[in-house]
Amino acid sequence: MADNPFDLTGKVACVTGANTGIGQGIAVALARAGADVALVARRDPADTVAMIEDAGRKAAVIMADLSSIEPCERIVSETVEALGGFDILVNNAGIIRRNDALDFTEDDWDTVIDTNLKVLFFLSQAAGLHMAGHGGGSIINIASMLTFQGGIRVASYTASKSGVGGLTKLLANEWAAKGITVNAIAPGYIATNNTAALQADADRNRQILERIPAGRWGEPGDLGGAAVFLASDAARYVQGHILAVDGGWLAR
Ligand code: NAP
To answer: Known catalytic residues?
Structure first.
């Protein structure tokens, strides 16, 4: 193992949904640990590019709409072409639809499942094919508290994130022997666009804060250390794990 097992110098990472929120926080943390980073986004991730370059690393932008599996193979090939490898994949892009289960539509269901679960699987497959032929790598899926809990008014999101937990373990089982680690991070309540509606609802905001032992919403940067760890040689024997970064929410 290297002197600093958390050092990502010489590694190439690819982060989906890297223009904002948790994806941006993780992309910057990986760059600060030494990785060059391909940023997958459907909107210009100029802010994230600037933060990565400030950290002294290279950024590549890959424009892609992750509502279908169409761009998956291209994301891997363009990352390799731009940055010379593909060692770390962070499946972060995700969406949520809020509606009572009695009113939930097929569109509410399919849209969320397609991005959060189907594309996550097929992008992992494209990455896994490359990694298996190039000495291995690390895949980090962004799960949720709703990988463990039921939630309310978010049927397709809960189904997708519970599925992410299962897929993380399945892929770890299949790919550990190929030198690929597959793990997940389960964020608690993090202040991003995804949770803007909850933050804006005074009652829900108070209820959430009362239940978080840390007493505050998480910030995207709070996920960075967990991502660096799971991407690094320090986690080379960690497989199929879902690491909660939640200010103590699940412990309550
Ligand atoms: P966010 O700020 O809304 O970021 C979501 C990211 O995914 C954005 O970059 C978004 O792009 C991208 N994305 C969504 N659909 C896409 C598509 N079809 N094509 C390309 N990119 C797409 O929310 P976030 O909180 O950072 O969410 C990141 C991940 O963390 C998600 O998987 C979410 O489920 C998970 N998570 C969040 C929390 C939380 O409390 N915030 C808790 C648990 C898990 P646009 O900016 O263009 O929409």
So the answer is: 157
